[in-house]
Amino acid sequence: MASTSLTRTFGQTGNRTIMTFSAWVKKMGLGTNQMLFTSSYQGNSAYQSLIFFDSSDRLVFKNVDTSSTTMHYVSTRVFRDTSAWYHVVWAFDTTQSTAANRVKLYVNGEQITSFSTETIPSQNADNTWYNITQTHKIGVKAHSNSDYFNGVMSHVHFIDGTAYTPSTFGSVDSATGEWKINTSPSVTYGTNGFFILKDGNSVTDQSGNSNNWTVGGGTLTKTEDNPSNVFATGNPLIGIHSNGNGLVPTYTNGNTTSTSGGSAWKIHQSNLGASSGKYYAEFKLISNSGTWYSYVGIYDLDGYAQKISGYPYLSDMANTYGLKDGNGQIHTGGSGTSYGVSYGTGNIVGVAMDLDNNKLYFSKDGVWMNSANPSNGTGGYSITADKTYAFGIQQYAQNSIVWSANYGNGFIGTTAVSSAGTNASNNGIFEYDVPTGFTALSTKGLNL
Question: What is the CA radius of gyration of the chain?
């Protein structure tokens, strides 16, 4: 949603003292203001309510009425995990006689009680939500169309007239101890309440109120990544090492598209890895300009973490393997071995890693290289056993190079896979057939 927003203007005033906001969100970017839910009165910033992550990655609620800030909360805790979903609940009930009970914040079922800023509303104070002429927006600041949310949202609820606790929307998994989603909570939504983005990118209200939203700009892309099954994406947190080399590309499209240039090597690495099992992913070279090179393959995460000096390249490190663009060689430990064929702009390179039998396979546009067949284990490239591997790309361009990964999320860039290949694991959507016994690198895939 980095350039996407949703919009709605409500036609009637609801309960402006008691309400609940609940949403599952997955951040893709850090260090900038990112709006979740905002409102403005006739476009005037003097009247606004905002729920957002600030530039320090803290959760914030702010209510401004006639140029006076009547409520303002800034969490001390920061939220910087780009691989996980956060369940955020803000519950408001300014009718409470106890001041501390008027505004409550919960993340993953736990109440947040430490705030660096805490301006408690007076009893019976109104939020600026639901004024009849207000424009409400999700994913961007309402009055200025700035500070877009860079990430993914799911199961967005707003309740008019009731302050709910997070146990309405989720619970602790008895097996894992983790907070899990309740996909069909029993709530009373009130006049202006709504429920959107349920299991997809639909902005049609599921509450029964018909408070539907519209896409106000950008492209609202459906992804298989969800609170119940977290898929791998590129990792914007890796690549900075003690020698000062900044190796992280510019990420977009939910950290699945990576762009680099300026005659510098960059590393796109998945934020999930595995030490056993069989996993498949697809990488499409979108464009390149000027002299360019790429290696697509897998990283030894332990070796990468220990490489604290020099450039931790996929092509140079031991136990890390990359198929080079132009010569059909797998490079590891600084040398290449003939294996497959060259690839270029528009090609989709499939990578299948079999960590049970320590084999690696590559395909080009659905055809397996080296006459290999990962389904029956023939023709693969042998890799070192007992390592933890992640998928990745090493990319270089004189001017610009753009890659998009499909880790099973179901899209390449902003284009959804329209004619998916077969996938016996039923985990993830890919352009080409997933080899028998392989699955997507996701939390569900890791536990198959």
Answer: 24
